[in-house]
Amino acid sequence: MGGGATAPESPIHGAPIIDARWPGLIDLRRQPERIGEIQEAAAFPPLAALLEALNGAHSPLWTAKCDLWEPEAVELAGLASASSPASSGALARTALACYVDLLPLAGEVFAQPLQAEAYCRKWVSRLAPVRLPDCRVDLVIRQAVAGEAEGFGVTAYLSALGADESAAAEALAAALSAFANTIPAFAVPATPASKLQ
Q: Where are the beta strands (DSSP E) in the chain?
């Protein structure tokens, strides 16, 4: 896990392909005790808690990569406009964001984009009642490769605003906790995927 390696670009909207079995992968499903080796998780314990939930026994998912960063000013402006009025303007001076690449346990990838979309819609419906005004969650469907399995995965982007670093970290921690607590109980069944075109 981590943001180190770059992936080949997907023909879908130019997004990078999720290369799930990349050489630096720490498989938290098989070796959860290695979570401390993931720099981003060690730097931000709420991200570690999310990774543990996503790779836990009751989750239908596994994670391939993650990253944690402070968005640039341009990204901050976009988040401020999507957030609450109280977070915009002079009060919002900093932001914190992370992403996690998600894949289904069944089949290691979603065989079709519609399967990934159905799963994302279910997650969004579970998140809908949660009120976190200074936060944003985006689920992006991307092509994915997991060894011999080729199909689709989902990258979850979570962002939060705050008046300072501490407030942004607190808001992002709340978003990560809500995201972990709303993992849908089952994934859309995956079927063997064809080769990427």
A: 18-19, 61-69, 94-104, 135-146, 149-162
- pLDDT tier for residue 70 given thresholds of 50, 70 and 90: very high
User: What is the percent of the chain where pLDDT is above 70?
Assistant: 76
Sort residue 108 into left (φ over 0), alpha (ψ -120 to 50) or beta.
Answer: left
pLDDT score recorded for residue 111: 94
For residue 129, the 8-state DSSP code is: T
Residue 150, token pair as written in the block: 């080729």
Q: How far apart are CA 20 and CA 194, in angstroms?
A: 16
Element (H, E) at 54: helix 45-54
**pTM here?**
0.83
Question: How buried is 119 (Cβ within 10 angstroms: 0-12 exposed, 13-18 middle, 19+ buried)?
Answer: buried
